[in-house]
Write a sequence for this structure.
């Protein structure tokens, strides 16, 4: 019989049951992380089959990341309120249905809509699964190991995306990249009903519908404006109006959230320099990652003429080093703090972008490999210190919310990376896409360099004594009024 519990916490489970719960949560994380990157390698095939423009390709990526970023905070609090297992199963059902619809999409609009449905389901998986893990593994050391396994799955799934996607596109079609989610999603749904206990937070936060709508408007309008600006013109009335609406939504969000007792995003967190720095680092790092994958995929397949599988194999050094460096980064953070991994991440990702600024139609393979190796090392070093820096000094009751904001910042970074870099490069293409892309892509690679430099600077600033003192002051203020964000994770 399924394990059920009407109380706010999960019942004690055997070691075997706890491992099954962890495996189910990791299955969900794997397919959500995989879909962040597996689609990139299929973009040229989708472009040919559905006659999509570059802006259409950007929307295939950003429809997923924008919706995911918009709903992560809401999904976490929903799980606390109505039940984590119930919310998790709903997320699995929507994600699996969205994957099926993606594989059957007859046109670009249908594919973008199905990607948004996928993301709505995915938003219910990651934050809720983390709550399930922390609620299941109550012993601190065992919980730390479980979260370590969880974190390594993030790097593995995102790193394997291009390779798995290339193999599926070449052996079947681009639609096959969505088929892989269906059996995994169905299996996780059934196993969740059988083995995952139900739990709820003792005092879940109230719903913040106004704040949620403002977040959606801000991210959707900003992304739409950035993607469509090359076609409309950067100075056109629609583009300027889009930026104005996004700016107004941001101003209203800040003013409204400051007045709420239980806000969707507690702006007091940003008084902590480590937290603010981690948020910006996440945006910069994942913008560089998303932009790198987007540009590299178009270069390898549209300029060099490689197959999807061959393009995926080219990026294998990047994937392998991301997987290898992710646990190493976690150990370094645990022993010496986040500064060293952040500096390594910023320097190597920036150096990789610098190498790619000289891209031509006949760039030697060894130069590409050098860029992939450096980027793999940097991205592998990035994840662990982001979360560590975000929660640095936070009271335990607020640590989950701080980690959720860091996760949202990663998704925002991916959305902006594809939107900004893709649009600027598209605007700079002269002549045919295949011949004009290498020169036009340089502005995108310089943005990657700038993101690396920002990570280095913030990695230094957020680990100083001044930053630690600001975190301590923020934690003291939060501890004096714990009911604003308690039980939010």
């Amino acid at each position: 019989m399924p394990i059920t519990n009407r109380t706010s916490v999960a019942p004690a489970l055997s070691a075997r049951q706890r491992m099954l719960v962890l495996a189910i949560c990791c299955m969900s994380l794997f397919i959500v992380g995989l879909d962040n990157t597996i689609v990139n390698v299929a973009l040229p095939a989708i472009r040919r089959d559905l006659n999509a423009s570059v802006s259409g390709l950007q929307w295939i990526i950003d429809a997923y990341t924008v919706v995911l970023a918009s709903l992560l905070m809401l999904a976490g609090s929903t799980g606390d309120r109505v039940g984590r297992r119930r919310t998790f199963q709903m997320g699995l059902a929507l994600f699996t249905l969205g994957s099926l619809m993606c594989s059957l999409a007859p046109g670009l609009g249908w594919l973008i809509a199905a990607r948004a449905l996928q993301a709505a389901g995915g938003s219910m998986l990651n934050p809720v699964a983390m709550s399930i893990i922390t609620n299941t593994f109550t012993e601190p050391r065992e919980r730390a190991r479980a979260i370590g396994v969880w974190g390594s799955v993030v790097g593995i799934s995102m790193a394997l995306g291009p390779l798995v996607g290339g193999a599926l596109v070449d052996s079947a079609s681009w639609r096959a990249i969505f088929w892989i989610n269906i059996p995994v999603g169905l299996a996780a749904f059934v196993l969740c009903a059988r083995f995952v206990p139900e739990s709820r937070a003792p005092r879940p936060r109230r719903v913040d519908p106004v704040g949620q709508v403002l977040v959606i408007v801000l991210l959707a309008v900003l992304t739409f404006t950035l993607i469509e600006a090359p076609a409309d013109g950067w100075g056109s009335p629609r583009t300027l109006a889009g930026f104005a609406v996004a700016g107004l939504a941001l101003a209203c969000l800040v003013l409204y959230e400051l007045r709420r007792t239980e806000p969707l995003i507690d702006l007091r967190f940003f008084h902590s320099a480590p937290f603010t720095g981690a948020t910006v680092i996440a945006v910069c790092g994942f913008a560089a990652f998303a932009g790198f994958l987007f540009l590299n995929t178009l270069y390898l397949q549209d300029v060099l003429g490689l197959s999807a599988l061959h393009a995926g194999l080219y990026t294998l050094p990047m994937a392998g080093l991301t997987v290898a460096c992710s646990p190493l980064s976690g150990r370094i953070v645990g022993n010496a703090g986040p500064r060293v991994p952040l500096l390594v991440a910023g320097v190597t990702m920036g150096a990789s972008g610098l190498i790619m600024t000289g891209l031509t139609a006949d760039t030697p393979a060894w130069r590409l490999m050098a860029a992939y190796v450096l980027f793999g090392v940097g991205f592998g070093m990035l994840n662990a210190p982001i979360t560590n820096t975000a929660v640095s000094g936070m009271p335990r009751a607020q640590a989950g919310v701080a980690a959720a904001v860091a996760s949202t910042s990663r998704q925002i970074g991916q959305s902006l990376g594809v939107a900004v870099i893709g649009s600027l490069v598209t605007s700079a293409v002269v002549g045919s896409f295949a011949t004009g892309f290498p020169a036009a892509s340089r502005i995108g690679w310089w943005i990657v360099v700038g993101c690396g430099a920002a990570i280095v600077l913030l990695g230094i600033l957020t680990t100083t004594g001044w930053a630690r003192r600001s975190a301590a002051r923020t934690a003291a203020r939060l501890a004096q009024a714990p009911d604003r964000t308690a039980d939010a994770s």
Summary: DSSP finds 20 helices and no strands in the chain. The two ends are 28 Å apart (CA to CA).
